[in-house]
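REVIEWER CHECKLIST
Item 1: Sequence provided? yes
Item 2: Single chain? yes
Item 3: Sequence as submitted:
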Amino acid sequence: MLELDKNNEFVKSVFDYIEGGSISNSVKIFRQLEKKHEILFIPMTEFNKTEFCDDKWIKNNLYPFLSDSQLIISGEILDSIEILDLDFREIGTTWRHWGEILANWCNENGIEKPIISRNKSTRWKYIDFYMYTYTSQWIQNYNEWAKAILEIIMEKDKVFSYEYKSIDE
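Item 4: Structure as written out by the authors:
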């Protein structure tokens, strides 16, 4: 199984939280990474936003964010969150497309897929990140990780929403 890099500041903070530590450090680091990469993860909302899917934005903003955060989450989490650019446009992805984005990022960054059982390929495919039942077979402690990531995004929204709510009003 692939173990997320606990030398990464954000990953370390998430696992500290999973092990009973405070959520506040993870929230702070996550928000700093969002600002650095001009990206916003928020809980699912009711208001309609413009959707976009721009390969250039994915490579210039999302991929560097993923590199700094190791935010490996499966597609069904997109039913609970939205990923926005600074113009409040939502990245329009399906579970499958999200899986493809993560697989491409992993493959481009040399993150090899573990060879387990009948799997003979070290290249990731969209299906590996499609839903948690697939992702959890490749990523160590995935279920705890995914639960913590959702909690961090929800808490971040409570703490920092004043920074981005005024744009809507």
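Item 5: Key structural point noted by reviewer: The chain has a mean pLDDT of 89.
Item 6: Recommendation: ____
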